[in-house]
Write a structure and sequence with these properties.
Elements (H helix, E strand, L loop, with lengths): L32 E2 L5 E10 L1 E3 L6 E4 L4 E4 L16 E3 L2 E4 L9 E5 L7 E7 L1 E4 L4 E10 L6 E3 L5 E13 L2 E9 L5 E4 L4 E4 L6 E4 L5 E6 L12 E6 L2 E6 L4 E7 L1 E2 L6 E5 L4 E5 L4 E7 L1 E3 L16 E6 L2 E6 L4 E8 L3 E3 L3 E5 L5 E5 L4 E4 L4 E4 L7 E5 L5 E5 L4 E12 L5 E6 L5 E9 L10 E2 L5 H5 L16 E3 L20 E3 L28 H16 L6 H13 L6 H14 L6 H14 L1
Parallel strand pairs: 12-42
Antiparallel strand pairs: 1-40, 2-39, 2-41, 3-4, 4-5, 6-7, 7-8, 8-9, 10-11, 11-13, 12-13, 13-14, 15-16, 16-17, 17-18, 19-20, 20-21, 22-23, 23-24, 24-25, 26-27, 27-28, 28-29, 30-31, 31-32, 32-33, 34-35, 35-36, 36-37, 37-38, 38-39
Amino acid sequence: MYIENVVSQKKEEDGMNKKLLSVVVGVVMAAWPVAVQAQTTLTTVGAVPGARWVHGTTLLSVEGREGYGLMTVDGKMLTAEVYDSSMEYYNGYIVARPISEDLNCTGLLGLNDLSGAAVMPFQYGEVKVLSSHWALGIVLEKSTASQYDYQSLIGDNYYLIKNVDVYYIENGKGSNLATLTRDQYMDARASETYINIEDRTTNTVTRYDAQFQAVETEVKYVYELPPDPDDLVTYRENGQYGVKDGLDNIVMEPAFQSIYDYNGAYAVVSTGEKKGLIDAQGQVVIPAEYDDIKRSYYTPEGTSDYNANGYFAVVADGKIGFVDETGAVTCEPKYSENAAEIMGASALLTDLEGNQLLIAADGVETRLEGYDRVRACDYGSGMYYEVQDADYNEGLIDWHGKELLPCEYADLAFSGDGQYVLARSRDDYSTCVIYRVTYEKDNPEKIPEVELVDEGMEAIESETETIFELEPESEAETVSGAENESEAETMSGAETETETEAIPGVDTETEAETMSGTEAVTEGTDLGAGDTSAVVALLDGAISFLDGDAAANSVSIQTLLGNAKGLLGEGQEAVESILDSAVAMLQNEGVDAQSVKTLLESAKTLL
């Protein structure tokens, strides 16, 4: 996450400043005929200016006038557009940072109820999500090159941990259980039930429960955690290995010489000579008859790396092949393991003549021609490939080499669940079209050819405040069959004086527009719950105080915001989250009045 001088990225062109989404009534593309394939269809969902996926999710980061906001694929805005572009997904949460020059303003947004509400306040230099129940809020302070824990990737900026807040998260709410000093914190790991914390001074590791009560004070390693009840672990008996759950119940009696760790719902088993695969119930999915069971790294978020749309890659005598969920062979192992790259439900192979072959798990072999670059789509399970022509235009093909989208796009990216693809226009980079991808495995019937019509582009190019409307899937036009690299900067984890965590810095000036408040709060105003006009009046009063001495008026401003929050009605979770962020910023030393004003203006816009 950005730490120093975090501001809104400069808009490259005026077209990227459009508010949110435009109404899309037809298929938003130039007319071109496409023969729809029998098994794969792309259904147009809508057009979204200035959008991209939050990596690993089905949520969109949408650019507005003052920053980025979160939006669902069906067009529901979860937050105001007040965050920078570096939103990142971890264990069901979004680590986000409002556009601010404040060092400590990173927080956590929840996704479980799709409200986008704050789980942790925006008052940290870094937020570490350790599991779905545990997170750390790390407060940083400026330091020097002689002693630091973090360093910006741009500029000579160094930071030291001031303190660490330990949060336990339940039902979308984070509770601050403890505040640790820098000396008390060196590292931490967590399961769903417990958290291990390593002390910097003593190098000892202590385990705590959800009430932050110490349950073990002599843990050997910080990563050494007991299994959760739903975890599956191996045990040994009479020279053979079996499987138990986290409560010590037997799931599978000992039957193999070794069992590898579970990856999702599957684990590789070995007889000592051959390997197979078992599921979470201990049932054999693939008999132990192969030299290896291959993993894929292109499956949807949260799924197993072994099961790619119902297919599994196996190796026999140095040859790659595929089997299905019943263990039946669907593609005989006959392709050299050294020459083929497993992508999930398919493999790419380059033969001795330099020809590139696409090997589908159902046994279909396709020679690919006319492309300068072929790459498996992230989250596509090896069913879909991004292709590129000599002019760097991108298109989409399926696992049989059938063209789904022509090479006419700047880039393509799948959602984390592999069900949607976002296609960015080459002519107008800020324009994106979202398609729903449907694969009908058992539908061999040919769908008639359709022609896409050029409708809705005028709506995209006009500035509008309207969130786009979705077409019912039963009425939407379909096209044949239907990766944008994450641009979020990453931080390298490290230890203190010997290794350091790197954090990107941004040295640009903020371009967030300044908006002045108008009305002041007057005595005798009828403040009824859900009265947005009363909330706006309170926010305008707070803005008036910010225009004066923000530090001196901090308490008064927080009081106004607290009153405003109390008046919010149902469906105003996003506004509530913004007000919480504003209060957190007011509680920091050196109030950034302009950033708080920007938040409040965004809240007014939502109201």
